[in-house]
Design brief:
The complex is a heterodimer of chains A (282) and B (250). With 282 residues, chain A is mostly helical. Chain A contains 13 helices and no strands. Helices cover 78% and strands 0% of the residues of chain A. Chain A is globular, with a radius of gyration of 18 Å. The mean pLDDT of chain A is 90. Chain B starts with 5 loop residues before the first strand and ends in a 5-residue tail after the last helix. In chain B, a hairpin with a 2-residue loop joins β9 and β10. In chain B, the strands form two sheets. Chain B has a six-stranded mixed beta sheet with strand order 6-7-8-3-9-10, sandwiched between helices. A four-stranded antiparallel beta sheet of chain B has the order 2-1-4-5, with helices on one face. The chains are: A mainly alpha (282), B alpha/beta (250). The complex binds adenosine-5'-diphosphate (ADP) and magnesium ion (MG).
Chain lengths: 282, 250
Amino acid sequence: MAYEIVVLTNMAISILFALSLNVITGFCGQVSLGHAAFLGIGAYTSAILSKAGVPLVVTFIPAMGMAALVGLVVGVASLRVRHDFLAITTMGVVFLFTGIVRKQDILGGEIGIAGIPAPEFGRIGLLVTALLCVLAYLLFVIRIRKSWAGFAFDSIAEDEDTARLLGIHVPRFKLFAFLVGTAGAGLAGALYAHQIRFIGPDSFGFVESISVLAMVIIGGIGSIWGVILSAALLSALPQFFQIIDDFKLLVYGLLLFGAMRFAPDGIDGLLKRLFRRAGGTR
Amino acid sequence: MTPARLSVNDVSVRFGGLMALEGVGLEVGDNQLLGFIGPNGAGKTTLMRVIMGIVQPVSGQVMLDGQDISKLNSVQRIHAGVALGQQIVKPLRAMSLLDNVALAFGGSKLLSPLRALSVRSRATEREAARAILSDVGLGAVTDKLPNEVPLGYLKRLEVARALALGPRLLLLDEPLAGLSKPEAGEMADLIAGLPRPGLSVVLIEHNLPQVLRVCPHLYVQANGRGLAFGPTDDVMAMPAVRKAYLGGEG
Ligand SMILES: Nc1ncnc2c1ncn2[C@@H]1O[C@H](COP(=O)(O)OP(=O)(O)O)[C@@H](O)[C@H]1O
Ligand SMILES: [Mg+2]
């Protein structure tokens, strides 16, 4: 039973993390290769505060705030660069983050932070909290999707110049995506720190950034339900099969390649095509 | 005297070694339709992009209703009342023709993510979009995706989208290109009917018969320089225009 709870909690955290990147990369079309840095910022913020005696749920706010603050800075920097260069910039963020953490004694340096207090409400309580966080974030991103913000994002993701000529204030919408996306990652990080109860710079590096990007792309860029499904699957697999964990980057890389080559719309597009065929309409 | 709707003064544009525009100027009053002609490569599209704030001139000034808008970016100019239907159509291919136009009706929601987040319904905008699409002859295909309709339809979509922005100054870059002869006639009629107090139109077109039919005033440009500007009949009678634009015949 305990094991299942751990797996489910990890799954919920992965879903939250993937949904948060989906706002930036899926909704707004801004590729990020460094999203794990924001998971890390949330994790470190929450871990330090809760070691100082702050209740877990209260640490959520500064964890999200710190991640969003740095997200805003990266967002402002990203306004000046375009697609391919944005990938490099965001990749730089994750190397910068791990580089800085390694050198800071208050952040545990190379060793990391151990002995993060167990959540006061126990393992099941943490699972419930994680699920509530996923639910709240999910409702928020559905709201974005269905509102005019999602409408505007659709145009920016496809063609920024045209979006501008329709009167859309592109920079503001991009920054909004970065804020919402990085805050979500910060929240996921706070949960993660208390699930694992030990964090170090290696947990928030380039590999983790690529993993979460793989979840978004395999789920179907921008598709909320596809991303949830792929995050759930991809986070569960390595927990059940050690071999997948050992070759995580290779497996994700192959899946990514397969998705881009054979199902460019991800699971979402694949399912839609199957249903359309099954439904008998062309 | 009220200032002109649009006044372009002494605009020059350089692309590397090429002077695409050299000291050009023109003026459009309220409720006017100005035809803008000139051979390929004359710098017509470039001038539209200068007015729109997409291309930065090395010198010169753009005034809208007496206000200098030279320092505004293109989004600010759109919300100030300038709209452009581009020569190369740029539909958003992931959404229906209807939503392409409805989005342009978004107004202040497009300036603020928080305002955008607070509104879910697209009903009013879609209704307005449906009306404009049927005005431009796309009433039957509003729910199609851009990839499902021919280029001629996308040219009309471009016009519909620009109109949806509710401009005071509408710039149309070759909206008749790609339309069949009867379609081009209809579109020219539609454009001729647009100007009213509060809306002026600049029409770039290669379809000379249609331009001469619907435009009371003409501006002619060649090789990045203004050649002639005035009432259509006067302009077409000028030898320089006949020589440059019609290749000297007659
Ligand atoms: N972005 C650009 N960079 C370099 N040269 C350009 C650019 N846009 C247009 N030109 C050049 O400027 C000249 C005018 O082009 P354009 O304004 O498109 O003419 P027109 O619309 O009258 O056919 C052409 O020689 C064209 O090749
Ligand atoms: Mg042109």
